[in-house]
Write a structure and sequence with these properties.
The complex is a heterotrimer. By secondary structure, chain A is mostly helical. Helices cover 78% and strands 0% of the residues of chain A. The radius of gyration of chain A is 21 Å and the shape is globular. The N and C termini of chain A lie far apart (65 Å). In chain B, strands 1-2 form a two-stranded antiparallel ribbon. In chain B, helix 14 crosses helix 17 and helix 17 packs antiparallel against helix 18. The N and C termini of chain B lie far apart (89 Å). Chain C is mainly alpha-helical. Classes of the chains: A mainly alpha, B mainly alpha, C mainly alpha. At the A-C interface, helix 1, helix 2, helix 3, helix 4 and helix 5 of A face helix 1, helix 2 and helix 3 of C.
């Protein structure tokens, strides 16, 4: 059953690469959903069903949907595809690769050694809940405030007449 | 006697009141405050002086406060009264008061600076305060404070009519030239402190007597440095060029500062530090030479001047030369005595000439005057009395002092007859130019119409000063006997041959002046008509070429250097620093191009580098 | 559904690292602001994966809790960021990240 992990890993990696190199925004978002779902599978395999559920419901189900809304609002159609390919010449990949490839290699080097096995024990939602309302209570409250701040900020930034007001003045 | 501190405080308060009121007080109040403060100081001097004499002329000092404490250096602000200080204070407050009263009349309707009445008296009071601190200070630092203070007030008052830039130049010239002297004096002070370890006058003189043997080099050097300071302040050769130009100030200023008080500060300094000169006869010799040269040169220059105030200025230079020479030949008391009598008659002369100038609507050229003896009686009599005293006719105050100087000079072992000869020639010239001045101003035909506009506050001081100029010689100055080395005025046989000749010289001068100027009514040197005489006249007129010399040697090179250094090369160092910073900024500003991806790339680069470093460390 | 496999930890981490690097490359390369944000999400997801794996290694809930907080963070960030994207598109009439370079020296 371990091979399931490697299959999901390959899927995640491949779809992520397709997201990053995609030209059509909506297609890239769908690939992103695929990537997120693969990672959710991996979470299940690691014995973290709660995290997996969260990944699907919140990440893929809310955040990416939010992206999709904005993409559709901005009407990124065929013209945008052409623009994206103009912006994505192969020569642009050189410098960033110069940075990320050494980073990748270095991190992999750090990770090399005697492989440690994961616990093989499932940590269910009950355990997570107990921890949340115990030691991590303060952090939960803070997260709540953070979300409130994001709510207010998003409301304010999204107002249509913010820029129109500037034109009036 | 503990009211001693009040004497300088009254003028200081007067200055503060007038300065802080910024000219908003009514004129009569300004006059009362300005002259009244000096009057109160004069009364204070009388009271304190009386107590002092009744206590047997014991030197008395009063500590005001300690200036600072820096290790062993603890200078105090302390006032010291002895005979010498008392004489000086009396002159400053007494003659000063009379001049201030005169000035309330002279400056009342001033056309050039109608709003300057309060400012004038503020400066004058500040000057009197500084001068009093100079003479009453027990500490050389306090003396130097007063020294610099009078220099400042001299600058402010010479340039009083500041709308004319020439007056500003004259004031600046006075300040700069005296500054040269001040630098010498400061060097002398530093050296004295380093050698003797104290700045207190009495303590340092005592220390000098024990530390330095007769003829010691250190004493000579310090004595010469102090002489340098005296040269600047007292307008002696070679730092005398500022005094004639200082006549640009109002006449009361010329009377107070440039005749009676500030220019005598150098004389006071040398008299005060007399022990140094007693220790070092060589320095004392140079003092005498300086005085001799000055009195000789300036007496000739005074003969060919056209401006009445310049005649008096060169005359002052000459008379102070007498005082300095007296100090140099050991006639200490005579020098101080002459200081006092000179204050009387020179102030009288200046104030009287002020009345004349005012009556002629600020006409100062003697060749445009004439025939005023009927129209301006009191100024005429005053100038006559003053001239008689200046020329040292027998029994006037000037006679007693000047003859004492000349006779003591004649007794000098090293070059007595040279000193006496030079002084005698100058005395002859003095009588000559004095007669010329009187004849040109008051006799002959009236070239400019005059109307007497003087009031009681101008004529009153004139009359009082007349009395002092005539009778001041009977004071005798016993008070300074305890202070100065010669123990009072040496008595001379007034009927020895040389004394009789000395007495006769001014009379000869007057007679000669009558013949030359009274009859032909002109500049006699011009009458000679030859070109040589004309060149001589021009040479004398320019003050023997000192201005020309200084201009060539000092001013022109300095101005050239200043022009070369227009782009200040010291500034260049700082400019280089600034331009390097700017250059680095321009280089670094390129990385702030406002692009998000560029910033992100740099952040990632930082991350990679930190990671690499950590890995390096971790792997050894 | 009560199973958990024993997967070698390093392999999970390598996957997380790979996803992270891909996301980083995407942030640096893409000019369209939407793609930049997507790449950012990818990076955060990779971090979350690493946390959950570490939690699974020790059989504790802390890893999942950290993942949850990262999720909250990502949600907040996306909400605000998309608001900014809307303003950007209205102001500069394009979604080019390089268009908003007015804060240069």
């Amino acid at each position: 059953m371990e091979s399931l992990f490697y299959i999901a890993a390959v899927t995640a990696l491949a779809s992520t690469v397709l997201v990053v190199t995609g030209k059509n925004a909506s297609h890239a978002l769908i690939y992103l959903i695929v990537s997120l779902l693969s990672v959710a599978v991996i979470f299940f395999l690691l014995g973290a069903p709660f995290a997996a559920a969260l990944e699907v419901v919140v990440y893929a189900g809310a955040i990416v949907v939010l992206f999709l809304f904005v993409v559709m609002m901005l009407n990124l159609g065929k013209g945008s595809v052409a623009r994206e390919s103009a912006w994505l010449r192969p020569s642009m990949w050189v410098l960033p690769s110069l940075l990320t490839v050494p980073l990748f290699l270095g991190l992999v080097y750090v990770l090399s050694g005697e492989p440690v096995q994961t616990g093989g024990v499932m940590v269910g939602p009950k355990a997570v809940g107990t921890q949340l309302f115990g030691p991590y209570l303060l952090a939960v409250e803070l997260a709540g405030i953070l979300l409130l701040a994001a709510l207010v900020g998003a409301y304010h930034l999204g107002r249509r007449y913010l820029s129109e007001r500037r034109e009036e003045v | 006697m503990d009211a001693l501190w009040l004497i300088p405080t009254f003028p200081l308060l007067g200055f503060l009141v007038l300065f802080l009121s910024q000219g908003k007080l009514p004129k009569i109040v300004v006059a009362l405050v300005g002259a009244g403060s000096i009057g109160l100081a004069a009364i204070g001097t009388l009271v304190v002086g009386n107590a002092f004499l009744e206590a047997g002329a014991e030197p008395h000092s009063q500590l005001l406060w300690t200036w600072m404490r820096v290790g062993d250096f603890v200078p105090e602000i302390r006032l010291y009264l002895d005979g010498l200080a008392l004489v000086m204070t009396g002159v400053i407050t007494g003659v000063g008061f009379l001049i201030h009263v005169y000035a309330t009349g002279y400056m009342w309707d001033d056309h050039e600076e109608p709003e300057g009445f309060s400012r004038f008296f503020a400066y004058m009071n500040l000057f009197v305060f500084a001068m009093l601190m100079l003479v009453l200070g027990d500490n050389l630092l306090v003396l130097f404070l007063g020294w610099e203070g009078v220099g400042l007030c001299s600058y402010l008052l010479i340039g009083f009519y500041h709308r004319n830039p020439d007056n500003g130049y004259a004031a600046r010239k006075a300040f700069v030239v005296t500054r040269v002297g001040d630098t010498f004096m400061a060097l002398g002070l530093f050296l004295l402190f380093r050698e003797l370890g104290t700045m207190e006058i009495q303590a340092s003189l005592a220390a000098a007597n024990t530390a330095w043997p007769e003829g010691s080099t250190m004493a000579t050097i310090i004595g010469l440095l102090f002489l340098g300071g005296a040269m600047g302040k007292s307008a002696q050769v070679p730092l005398q060029t500022w005094l004639p130009d200082a006549m640009a100030g109002p006449t009361p200023v010329s009377a107070l500062i440039h005749a009676a008080t500030m220019v005598t500060a150098g004389v006071y300094l040398i008299a005060r530090m007399h022990d140094i000169y007693v220790i070092s006869p060589e320095a004392q010799f140079w003092v005498a030479v300086t005085g001799l040269v000055t009195l000789f040169i300036s007496s000739f220059t005074a003969l060919v001047q056209t401006d009445i105030k310049r005649v008096l200025a060169f005359s002052t230079m000459s008379q102070i030369g007498y005082m300095i020479m007296a100090l140099g030949v050991g006639a200490w008391s005579a020098a101080v005595f002459h200081l006092m009598t000179h204050a009387f008659f020179k102030a009288l002369l200046f104030l009287a000439s002020g009345s004349v100038i005012l009556a002629l609507h600020h006409e100062q050229n003697m060749f445009k005057m004439g025939g005023l003896w009927r129209k301006l009686p009191i100024p005429f009599v005053s100038m006559l009395v003053g001239s008689v005293a200046l020329a040292a006719l027998p029994l006037t105050s000037g006679f007693f002092s000047k003859d004492a100087i000349m006779l003591t000079a004649a007794d000098n072992p090293s070059a007595g007859m040279v000193f006496w000869g030079g002084a005698a020639i100058a005395a002859f010239m003095t009588a000559l130019y004095t007669t010329r001045m009187i004849l040109l101003t008051f006799f002959g035909e009236e070239k400019t119409s005059a109307h007497d506009s003087s009031r009681w506050n101008m004529n009153g001081p004139l009359i009082i000063l007349c009395g002092l100029a005539l009778g001041g010689g009977w004071f005798g100055l016993g008070v300074v006997s305890g202070v100065l080395p010669d123990g009072g005025m040496t008595s001379h046989d007034h009927f020895s041959p040389i004394a009789l000749v000395t007495m006769a010289i001014p009379l000869l001068g007057i007679v000669a002046g009558w013949f030359v100027f009274g009859t032909s009514r002109g500049d006699s040197i011009q009458l000679l008509g030859t070109e040589f005489a004309e060149n001589v006249r021009r040479f004398w007129y320019s003050g023997w070429g000192f201005d020309w010399l200084y201009d060539r040697v000092v001013v022109v090179p300095f101005v050239a250097l200043a022009r070369m250094n227009k782009n200040d090369f010291v500034d260049l160092v700082f400019k280089v620093v600034a331009s390097i910073t700017r250059g680095v900024h321009h280089v670094l500003a390129v990385i702030q191009n406002g692009r998000l991806r560029w910033y992100a790339w740099n952040m990632a680069l930082g991350l990679v580098l930190v990671f690499a470093v950590v890995m390096w460390e971790a792997l050894g | 559904m009560n199973f958990a496999l024993s997967i070698p930890l390093e392999h999970v981490f390598v996957l997380a690292v790979a996803l992270f690097c891909v996301g980083l490359t995407g942030v640096l390369v893409r000019r369209n602001v939407m793609f930049v944000l997507m790449s950012l999400e990818v990076m955060m997801n990779a971090c979350g994966l690493a946390f959950v794996a570490a939690g699974a290694r020790w059989a504790q809930a802390d890893g999942q809790i950290m993942f949850m907080f990262i999720l909250a963070l990502a949600a907040a960030e996306v909400a605000v960021a998309l608001g900014i994207v809307l303003q950007l598109s209205r102001r500069f009439d394009s979604l080019d990240v390089d268009a908003a370079d007015e804060m240069h020296s």
